[in-house]
Design goal:
The complex is a heterodimer of chains A (about 170) and B (about 325). Chain A has helices at about 5-10, 15-20, 30-55, 70-90, 90-95, 100-120, 130-160. With about 170 residues, chain A is mainly α. Chain B is mostly helical. The chains are: A mainly alpha (about 170), B mainly alpha (about 325). The interface between A and B is large, with 35 and 36 residues.
Amino acid sequence: MSIPLILKAVEESGVSVWIRESPSLFAYWFFLTWHALGMGMAVGASVVIDFRILGIARDLPLAPLKSLYKIIWAGFWIQVVSGILLLIAYPTKAAMNPDFYIKLTLIGIAVAVMRMIHKRVFKDSSLTDPVMMSRGRTLAILSLILWVGVVTAGRLLAYTYTVINYSG
Amino acid sequence: MYSAHYHLLLNHWPIIGTFTVLCLFVSALVANNDSLKQASLALFFLIALLAIPAYMSGNSAQEFLKETPEASMDRIQTHQGSALFALVFMEITGMISLIGLWQYSLGKKSEVHRPAGWNLTAVLLMAILTFGLMSITGTTGGEIRHPEIISNDEAPSSVGAAGVRILPGIQYFVTQSSRYIWGLLETLHFIGLILILASIGLLNLRLLGFFRKLPVAPLHRLLPWGIAGVFINVITGMLFFVSMPEFYSNNPDFQLKMVAIVIAGTNLMLFYCTSVFRPLALIGPGDDAPAYAKIVAASSLFLWIAIIVLGRYMPFWEVAK
């Protein structure tokens, strides 16, 4: 399969070379570390919401968990920025791996499910906890499965690539 | 100080400790003394924490003894084989102990909240098995440098021999059986990380004054999920280490991460899983935590994040070498 030329152009850009090859503590490994922390924030906060909707820690009031969405979104944007920088460092490695597109798709659906939970469960502040739980149940299960899928697909990116850069 | 020195410094604690604390625990059960039971559970968990660097520093010691002709490689391997079993059983003992201790911490004021019936029985059973494995580990370890304790008619330890056979199997499974296994174990390691942040991390944020509308007690009830995360990561982390010890042993980043884990684990046990937490569990919606709790929460959050950062930077030191 031929590799698109655009990947070569990105890979040869100064930013890409710097992130990939700089011996600095604040280059590639710095962004990779932020990518792990952002994951912990976005997925960790989602998991708390999903667990509570599914009946774990029932004496925790559900409505105030709405503010956990701040952590989810902060984590999400950390992931977008650090993810783009990592993609610039190794564009061919990611773009030529089907797993990369599986991961992006799963992220898209997982984020959409979290937005649906926000809309169905948290938007109407007059709902009681049992009503909130029954409205969110299916979505919460779906969300947990999707996040496990995202983390798995993301982790496997480091082990399933076939080409590491444009020259092979 | 050589890194091999750490092995000598650490390796007596799990062996003598398991025996001493097992005696204390049995006395506590016989006397039905809840304070002593809690002390035993706390100590079992501390020993489990120390056993991790004790095992891992063994590889540095082995590296060093390679150039010493009188230390037989066979004896070192037998010792390592039994140490692996002792470590696994010690970690299980430690984790069940921490859950039991946490159950004790749920009581209000002076009332005693006893752990579930299975818990103490499981701790006792696992501790007895661990003690047996620790004695074998101590004996086989001593025989490496003390020929005077080896009797001629003594058969080499069968537990150690079993460990010697299992170790290459684990290494093969983790690194060579499939390109996906290492990645899937990494996935589990990340899921453990998520559980730690979701439970211990959120509790700390609440104590620091974020999400003030949430009462503290129900967040404290989520702790077993964080403890499960710690357990998953200890097990997967051990699989990584025993499969590629030469990658980790001399890596300063890895050594620092192990130190951070011992401190973070001690912090988790002392402040979140003992009666020290009881006054904090009374903090209701809108209430502020006292200053000392904020200092502990900030330290805990800092330590767990440091562990993630150190873990992520680990290959950096290999590349930089």
